[in-house]
Amino acid sequence: MNPKQIIIAGTIAIVISISTVFQNEEANASLGLPGQADPAVHTRDSSRPETVASLQHVLGGLSDEEIHDALYNGRTLADLAEEQRVDVEDVIDLQVAELSQQLTSRLTSGSITAEQFETHQAELREMITKSVHGLSG
Predict the structure, then answer these.
(1) Hey, how many other C-beta atoms are within 10 angstroms of the C-beta on 92?
(2) Measured between alpha carbons, how far is 125 from 41 in angstroms, rounded to an integer?
(3) How far is CA 80 from the centre of its chain?
(4) Residue 46's pLDDT is what?
(5) How many CB atoms lie within 10 A of CB 77?
(6) What HEC string does 60-83 produce?
(7) Which residues contact 79 (CB under 8 A, 6 or more apart)?
(8) Are the C-beta atoms of residues 58 and 91 closer than 8 Å to each other?
(9) How does pLDDT run across 10-40, given as a tens digit for each residue?
(10) What's the CA gap between 130 and 22, in Å, rounded?
(11) Which of 57, 40, 134, 67 is nearest to 98 (CA)?
C-alpha cells in the first residue's frame, strides 16, 4: 500500500470511529424517563455541530465496507462524494466538526494544552480538505 492509501485509509478509520462514538453518546444522552421530553432531540443548538450525521449518511448511504474498499483502491472521499452527487464541502464540514469535537474533549480532559488545541484547530480544515481530496503534505 502506498503512503497516500495509508493516509486515506487511516483518516477514514478515524472518522468512522469518531462518528460511531459520537452517535452512541448522543443516543445515550437522549435517554430519559418515560414521558419526559428531551429538548435536545427536537431543537438544534446552532453553536454546537450536529453529531448525528455520519460519513455513511453524508455519502448517500454507502456502507463502511464500500467506503473502506474505495479508499483502499486509491479513490478519495472527494471521488465518492462526486459519484454520489454530494457536495464535497459537506464531507469536509462533517469531518471538521467531528475532529473539532474530539479536540475540545481532549482540551477539556487536560490531555492537550490550550496552545496545542489552538494550533491543531487552526490546521484542521486545511488538513482535512487535503485528505478528502487525496493530497499529501
Answers:
(1) 20
(2) 28
(3) 15
(4) 38
(5) 28
(6) CCCCHHHHHHHHHCCCCHHHHHHH
(7) 70, 134
(8) yes
(9) 666 566 655 554 444 444 443 333 333 333 3
(10) 24
(11) 57
Q: Give the integer Cα–Cα distance in Å for 44 and 65.
A: 31
What percent of the chain is predicted at pLDDT more than 70?
Answer: 61
- Across the chain, mean pLDDT equals 75
Torsion of CA 105, 106, 107, 113, to 10 degrees: -170
Alpha-helical runs (H) found in the chain? 3-29, 39-42, 55-58, 64-72, 77-83, 88-109, 114-132
In angstroms, the CA 85 to CA 76 distance is: 14
The residue-averaged pLDDT of 39-58 equals 51
Condensed to tens digits (0 to 9), the pLDDT of residues 59-81 reads 988 998 999 999 999 999 999 99
Listed residue (50, 135, 137, 54) closest to 100, CA to CA? 50
**Residue in the block written with cell 435517554:** 31
pLDDT, position 61:
87
- Is 81:129 a contact under the CB 8 Å cutoff? no
Instruction: With beta carbons less than 8 A apart as the criterion, state whether 31 and 67 touch.
Output: no
